[in-house]
Automatic annotation (TrEMBL):
GO annotation terms (biological process): signal peptide processing
This protein's name: Signal peptidase I
Catalytic activity reported: Cleavage of hydrophobic, N-terminal signal or leader sequences from secreted and periplasmic proteins
Underlying gene: lepB
Organism: Aphanocapsa feldmannii 277cI
Phylogenetic lineage: Bacteria, Bacillati, Cyanobacteriota, Cyanophyceae, Oscillatoriophycideae
Record-listed E.C. numbers: 3.4.21.89
């Protein structure tokens, strides 16, 4: 199982809309995303306890396999069937990142600071 730090970033894609997405791939990593939205990094499955809305056979995700280029990251939304993310745009140039998400507004029952690690998030979301 792949282990990566929790990092949600805010960015302005194509100089228009601002988004918050989760970084799942760093420069040099080979990332594979299957039709369910599950992620493998360099051949290791990424455990994502925070993803609650996976793609289904009736509404499959766009699969993708990509080696992340230097100066870029791969980003995904947690709502896999409905997210505009690297599956649509490809790798995101790192210079488009404008910040790191630190606070959660939705859902209202989880309003507050975002945890610093996957294990903290998994415990908080249960």
């Amino acid at each position: 199982m792949a282990s990566v730090p929790l990092l949600s970033v805010g960015f302005q894609h194509r100089k228009c809309d601002a988004y918050i997405k989760r970084v799942v791939g760093l420069p040099g990593e080979v990332v594979r995303i299957d039709r369910s939205g599950a992620v493998w990094i360099n051949g290791q499955w990424l455990d994502e306890p925070y993803v609650r809305n996976w793609c289904s056979p009736q509404q499959p995700c766009s699969p993708l396999t990509i080696k992340v280029s230097p100066g870029a990251v791969l980003v995904l939304g947690d709502n896999r069937p409905n997210s505009q993310d690297s599956r649509l745009w490809g790798a995101l140039p790192s210079d488009e990142i404008i910040g790191t998400a630190r606070f959660r507004f939705w859902p209202p029952g989880q309003f507050g600071n975002l945890p610093e690690a996957y294990s903290d998030l998994a415990q908080q979301d249960r």
